[in-house]
Fold each of these.
Amino acid sequence: MEQTPALVVACSLPLALRPLPALPTGAALAQSAHIAVQVLQGELTADERRRVEPRTEEDSAVLQDLHRVEAKLDLLLDLFAQWHQREQGLPPSVDCRWSVVDLQWECPALPPGFAAMTASESAAGQSAAGESAAREPRPALLQLYAGPRSLRPLELPGLFRAIAGPEGVHCQFVYAPLGDGFTEVLGRYLFRLHRREIAETRAASRR
């Protein structure tokens, strides 16, 4: 039975996918999990704001100066991230639904190297090829840039499945078992994206 995630965030992410001969195991899988946690923790740290309450007028003046410095650093980080991402050649952004279980999106065509089954094959298993694709999703490596300041992509091994329909291709990528640490930090990051989405919606409604 497939796990139903408690939180699914709709977002647009630059992402790319490539086939793998097999999913990593053992030390290779542990290394993938360790790097993924590092990348997500970096995204969380870069987005944090420490809130300090001034005790005196002098403290207030110092905090105002710190906020101005912070704003300038934010601008420099944004410019550097834009330059770095342009130099790296980001993959195209895709509208997707992101959870701690998987990533799902729609696309007009499949990524290179993957074969889709049709919707009828998925529903009824009418062909051997369709049955095989349904039972054995393809091992793949998902590469995505989690935030606008991302200097390093999040690279996740997992299983990719695609179902071709009349209006395009439905894609699903289920992560390999990367451990509780990965699930916890990804959940925190997704919750932050969710809160930001709510705040932006409220701000837009007040305009």
Note: Residues 57-88 form the longest helix (32 residues).
Amino acid sequence: MAGVEETNRPRLALALGALGAFLVIFGLVLIVQQIEQISSQPIQPAAGRKSLSSARAIQSVLFLLLVLVGIFAIASFAFVRWSRRYRRWLMHKPQAATPNADVWAMHRLPEEVAGEQDIEFGPAVDDDDGDTDPKPG
């Protein structure tokens, strides 16, 4: 809600939500009245069937429109919540960097290997098998 002060946003959202709920209830009441009016009319031969089918078509369109408006309202609400959280994540301050001045000084060998000594390897030697293996020095 651009251009609205932060303190007035909840009131405006509540007013718009109440207006939307009122319109949905009003639409449902109109649909129920239309159904009752259609069912109370006696069916007349050819002319009555045409008006009855057009009334049912209008009723179906109104109901589908009401459902689509509800889906749009819910999807809009979800998108606004998601975009606000994404913006908050995007704009957050980065964490302080971890110290990495002497990384290898912090490195510790596992306990099993700590007692063993490293093996030094000499230059590679060709043993006529087509591969070169390092020669233990």
Note: Helices lie at 9-40, 46-91, 103-106, 111-114.
